[in-house]
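tool_call: predict_structure(chain=1)
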Amino acid sequence: MEYRHSYRGPARNVGRRSWRMARAPGLVVALLVAVCVSFVVSASSGAAANRRSSPSSQAWSNEAGIEHLHFRTAPIKVLPGQNSIQMVPIPRNEKPAVDGYIVRMRPDVQYLDGEVPPVNVIHLHHGVWSDARHGPFFFGGEEKTVFHIPRGYGYPYKASDRWTLDQMIHNQRPVPTRVRLVWNLDFIPASTSLARTVKPVIPVWLDVRGGEDYPVFNSASGSGERGAFTYPTDAKNPYGGHTPLNEVRVPFDGTIVGAVGHIHPGGLYDTIELVRPGAALPTGRACRREAVDITDSRSATRCVAATPGSTAHSVRIFRAQAHYYEPAGPVSWDFALTASRPDWRVRVRRGDTLRITTTYASNHISWYENMGIALLFVAPGDRSGVDPFSAAVDWRGVLTHGHLGENNVHGGAPTSIVDVRKLPNGPLTTEVRIKGYTYRPGDLSLLGQPGARVPTVRQGHSLLFVNQDHAGYEWHTITACRVPCNRSTGIAFPLSNAPAATQFDSGQLGIDPMQMGPHSSPATNTMRWRTPSNLPPGTYTYYCRVHPFMRGAFRVVR
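tool_result:
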């Protein structure tokens, strides 16, 4: 794969709110939790009707005719500290050679020797696989969800399809490296008898900021309700009075057979709702027997009633729920998301509306550049699903993997880094320059030297920060963290956890070489930023969200 710097946002047509009449690839649903028996308590009879087959029998496995394919890119040069987006073409030798159906896909990033890099060093922030005719059909993020399409369905693929990959590789170190993106496919060639049993599915993209090239939002500490912020529900005028970006109108009757979500650290879940004007919720419950947790071989029966959505005449049909393996809680990439079960089917009607919301923890941390995305697979004309306004739908999913070894460096351990609260005041300062991944003056590495003093700024004034590293890819933030912010660096430390009243963030100071307008890039397209002028007297510490080993401090004085 040729590596070209086009610095484009996550798939140019990823956020469109129209249906892509395409052939969605292998995505959706993986079964790591042992789902044993599924049944529905009927609203009309109240009796439990056991399904004829277990969910595990409704997942593709190793049937004759399924090929297990492995693809990898050519070596990708990763620049020092980069966190930018590139769109690259996928050549013929990096996709199946014949027509057929994709039924499973698993992405990852590796060094050239095949080793998976630690997430605190380098990771695939996101990757979106798109077809030139049909738009996005598969995505991957650092949560590394494994996508499965259930038995009997598949994403129809043609060898003539032209694929592109919109990738955002995040290098947290100031040194270059080389990696490959890899993906495993389960594939059914069109020439096999098994292919004749497959129904084609269409990928449907849902995004809380649908239509934007870099579809992100921020959530402030203390916002929302009961320690959680749901977008767009808790946001003030999120769409500026225009058509909601988080909704898609269904253009035909069919059945949704798979769903999977994407969130960032701090995210709790993506929720998918179906809206039908005039419809009412059914009675009854949907139940299933399942393992108590991902490592438990026992099972228990759990039921859910039809759950109302967040708007009138709506019902919840799926939730991609985060399970954090991170010891510090929902603060890092050390989590897995649930995907829909292989036996999950939701019937939709022409004129229905699909709606997505996403929820982030907000009890003591502010989160920046959050995402809330889901990919659904729909079989047009299929009538096998449950109409969620006629009977309860079990919206719970299953995890697709456990804790991953690349997430083992959590950070937050005591260090010898200076506690700036113990240092005396330094001279009044008006400007901090960022050069060589160091804040000058005020970097904690410099403040640990003998005789060091904390730079000060007069109350009511601002401190100007200027990024003097490479404007095109060495992008830095100035993000408040709780004083003294001097513990070890990892995937869970530092955090943007300063008191809510004094939390600040600059965004990523840098210039996107290929600006495509607002909401198109992580970069702010400026190299300068000023602190708020209303900060009260006190000591403030901050860090770079892109390169979290970078820490600094200043003090506001009267």
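agent: The CA atoms of residues 475 and 510 lie 5 Å apart. Proceeding to next step.
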